[in-house]
What does this fold into?
Amino acid sequence: GKPLGPPFQDAGLVVSVSFSPDGRQVLTGSQDNSARVWDANTGKPLGQSVRHAGSVVSVAFSPDGRQVLTGSRDNTARVWDANTGKPLGLPLQHTNSVVSVAFSPDGRRVLTGSWDKTARVWDANTGKPLGLPLQHTSSVVSVAFSPDGRRVLTGGMDGTAWVWDASIGKPLAPSLQHAGNVVSVAFSPDGRRVLTQGKGGTAQVWDVDSGNALSPPLHNTGTAPPNRMPKTPSRSTLADLTTVPPVFSLANLILVQDLQPPPVLPPPVQPPPVQVVFGRGSTQYWQSMSFCRDGRRVLIGSGDTAWVWDIITGNPLGAPLQHAGSIESVAFSPDGRQVLTGSRDNTARLWDAESGKSLTPPLQHTNFVKSVIFSPDGRQILTGSWDNTARLWDAESGKLLAPPLQHAGPVEMVSFSPDGRQLLTGSRDNTARVWDADTGKPLGPPLQHAKPVRFVAFRPEGRIILTSSDDNPVQVWDVSPDDRPKKHLVELAQLWSGHRVDDTGTFVPLTREELAQRWNDLRPKYPTEFTVSPESVRRWREGEIRDCMKEGNLRAAEFHYWALFAELASGKAK
It folds into this structure.
């Protein structure tokens, strides 16, 4: 549970992030007009930040990770050397803000979308435009290359998306028409279909060659009261998007504005049409969704009802899944045969995905259930609730498998490690915690943040976790297993804290004899644990001096000052 360096803290609000292809670096774009590359393991900045004359609102790594691309409100995009931060080629000039950027699959071209009503393809090395501008009649806010790099897809506030020839800039099919703004676009992995999202969150699947719709518009009529809307994008949505199967991948988190009232449905009564909505800002709409791994079904919760839908036809599959309160989180089982819903009625429910029948008694909490997830093998369920607990359940019987995992505040998000042996929780008590899935006991100390933890996830290898909180930084933590004997790890923790836990769970200070015994036993075995770097000595002394000055303890401050002076002179501190 040790953090790998400090949080990725920019001077301004971070509005765009991207991982390098190998996952070892993180790129952030900030409202302080800068973008920066960070080491994902240490949290340290790599090289100098790159700067624009306006906020950096879109960022991307090249496929080989050697270049980065930034789009800014200064009306330019730029390609930079990821190692040195030096600009490569000329600025990619638009006449209004550049709000969406992408590299081609071979990394030789870049694509930009701008509020000047155009998208453009550029040579990544020279910065020269390739082909004609891709013209819309309003701002272009989302762009994407096809997997083979031969086509580009653009979405605009004029209510259209277009598929273009990437080499000459000519449209390859009629425009893909929405009733309002098209705010997100994506290609399928085989490049034969595209997914667009338009006004009010309406999503639609299209054939690339003909421009024909392959599904009816997918709508949602669910609403939620204003106090349900977070100040940041949905954590449950973020979690679901990390598990989207290889059919469609939404390019980014979408801001939906100006939603219209839902249409009146004619008899016979049918379930409300699906609408994929992602919440942020002033909108009063809310949505939770999860894709099935078969790539054909999507589970969407709207109001107090969830439905399974066929993603191609837009038709509902099976019966509605009904709660007595609004649904906060949904998930498919790994084999797609079961679905899981969490609700404001203080329960999670397990359902048969085909028939809609309830498979277990309600999984009961004492406050609403915010996050739900299946274990990788589908045999266990983890729920997180605003009753300050997460709970592990048997997916077959619905029985609790361990004592509640206790936080001091509401649990916002939960996750399993890839092997299912560890549990991860993020809470409004400003911590994330890793737990043993067999015993329900915490593994290591809390992962401390300055503000509520909204998002938690394991990396695929299971040794690194990622957390994000309201104070904006993204933080990476090493949770690699420690092979040292458990007894020694416990005694090391006791030594550094100066306390032990007695049989009643009370923290008891170690006696002088106990401290000496642990020190003498452990120091020969683990000498590096007892080694302090000169930089750490200096920082500690400086902290002590500041604290003593604040407390008015001038004598102690003077002691630490002269001790630091001697340590700097001897090299023990620097």
About this structure: DSSP finds five helices and 41 strands in the chain. The helical segments are 235-241, 486-497, 512-522, 534-551, 554-570. Confidence is low (pLDDT under 50) at residues 221-286. The CA atoms of residues 134 and 283 lie 31 Å apart.
